[in-house]
Amino acid sequence: MSWDLMPSTLEGQITMEKTPSYFVTNGAPKRIHSMAKDIKLIIVVRNPVTRAISDYTQTLSKKPEIPAFEVLAFKNRTLGLIDASWSALRIGIYALHLESWLQYFPLSQMHFVSGEQLIVDPAGEMAKVQDFLGLKRIVTDKHFYFNKTKGFPCLKKPEDSSTPRCLGKSKGRTHPKIDPDVIRRLHKFYRPFNNMFYQMTGQNFQWEIEEVGETPSSRD
Ligand SMILES: Nc1ncnc2c1ncn2[C@@H]1O[C@H](COP(=O)(O)OS(=O)(=O)O)[C@@H](OP(=O)(O)O)[C@H]1O
User: I need a surface site. Which of 13, 68, 131, 216 has the fewest CB within 10 A?
Assistant: First the structure.
């Protein structure tokens, strides 16, 4: 990002910027803090195991020749040694990344959205986001409908169009089937970091519950 491209914000306006990678970028908290100390931060998080598979699925769509997920996930599979330096896995260690942000911003300036809840109850999550931003609850359940073909909620009618709008083809893709043993090992790997994250945020995202069942994206 070019750090001088943020537009000036006039009275009564809110400037929003969305770059998921900032959450895991060294130096981002410091630089953002030096730009605007009272900025509000919204972080969307989902089960780190599903997140890793989603990340891998995105890369796979661009580079079909990459090794299998099960290969990339381990430094040594026989020893069960997870490769935490693989970015798809490292990003999901939310507690680690949050720690850097907490050096610069208080928790009160942060809002965490559950990626799972966002799918199940988009209006509920949007209500919380609007409250956090100090906005009137303008976006409500009237604006969403569940699109059976897409398998996700979509917008009924955006402002600038007369037709419903779903997110693009690259969002909500079917994930490849991953060896259940690898999934189990990853859940075990993340458990302490998830618990740390729940403590730091004061929010329990209930990712352990999914361990026994299917994750929202493992529809295949
Ligand atoms: N309404 C709706 N429609 C489609 N997809 C939805 C929706 N709400 C949440 N999701 C989930 O968003 C996931 C993709 O978001 P990303 O974080 O990859 O987006 S971004 O590229 O970083 O902007 C995407 O992950 P995948 O399922 O792995 O593709 C979805 O599970």
Answer: 13
User: Which structural domain, as residue segments, surrounds residue 37?
Assistant: 20-211
pLDDT tens-digit map of 34-93: 999 999 999 999 999 999 999 999 999 999 999 999 999 999 999 999 999 999 999 999
Contacts by 132-141, CB closer than 8 A, 24 or more apart: 132/40, 132/42, 133/14, 133/40, 135/14
Residue of 19, 148, 171, 219 to mutate, ligand 1, most atoms within 8 A of C-beta:
171
Does residue 218 belong to any structural domain of this protein?
A: no
Q: Is residue 134 part of a domain?
A: yes
Atom of ligand 1 nearest to the CA of 119: 8
The number of domains in the chain is: 1
Is residue 2 a part of any domain in this protein? Answer: no
pLDDT per residue over 181-217, tens digit each? Answer: 999 999 999 999 999 999 999 999 999 976 544 444 4
Helix/strand/coil for 113: strand
Interface confidence, given as ipTM, is 0.94
